[in-house]
Inverse folding.
């Protein structure tokens, strides 16, 4: 039993990684036969992995019960970015209003350092970027908000990859975040937020919509 669970977990991680990195792009049809051959596994662990991914919303089933990598629609992108701007905009303002801009500048800087270190791997960079955004909303100390972000993490990562592939420049984004941190240490909310909004809401959203 332990071996079967382990194989199912391995299949789950490999398939999920391929979905999140867009190796299996939205709309791609997946079959057990294809996956068992590709992963060199039997059908049972692959079938279990697909059920797990279906429950997470990364795989959908059509009228004919075919397994499809979940699409990302323009509506999905608009809704996710609207949610992020509403929550992170309020969180960012709260950081300054509570006099914690300098403290959070160092906390955010730690995440930005990791983003810079992952600049050559857009998937790892996107993972680091999501942690940076989670750091911003942590000011709320609200478990429900954290769960909302975690529940939408898979979509956010795939949208972020589209943003990078379609115009969001990693190096420029990293440099702008460093400027944002410097403005935070000067307690300059307007200029700091302009960078967050411009790079991670406006450009990120418009680039993702070019998918």
């Amino acid at each position: 039993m332990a071996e079967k669970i382990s194989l199912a977990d391995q299949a789950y991680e490999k398939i999920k990684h391929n979905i999140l990195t867009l190796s299996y792009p939205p709309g791609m049809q997946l079959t057990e036969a294809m996956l068992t051959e590709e992963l060199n596994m039997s059908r049972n662990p692959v079938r279990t992995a697909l059920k797990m991914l279906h429950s997470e919303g990364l795989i959908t089933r059509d009228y004919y019960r075919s397994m499809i990598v979940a699409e990302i629609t323009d509506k999905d992108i608009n809704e996710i970015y609207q949610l992020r701007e509403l929550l992170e905009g309020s969180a960012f303002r709260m950081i300054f209003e509570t006099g914690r801009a300098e403290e959070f500048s160092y906390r955010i800087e730690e995440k930005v350092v990791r983003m810079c270190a992952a600049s050559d791997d857009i998937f790892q960079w996107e993972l680091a970027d999501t942690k940076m955004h989670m750091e911003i909303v942590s000011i709320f100390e609200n478990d429900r908000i954290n769960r909302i972000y975690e529940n939408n993490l898979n979509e956010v990562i795939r949208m972020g990859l589209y943003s990078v592939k379609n115009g969001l420049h990693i190096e420029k984004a990293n440099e702008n975040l460093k400027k944002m941190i410097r403005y935070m240490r000067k307690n300059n909310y307007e200029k700091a937020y302009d960078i967050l909004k411009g790079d991670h809401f406006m450009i990120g959203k418009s680039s993702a919509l070019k998918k």
In short: Residues 11 and 46 are 6 Å apart (CA to CA). The beta strands are 29-30, 59-61, 67-69. The mean pLDDT is 91.
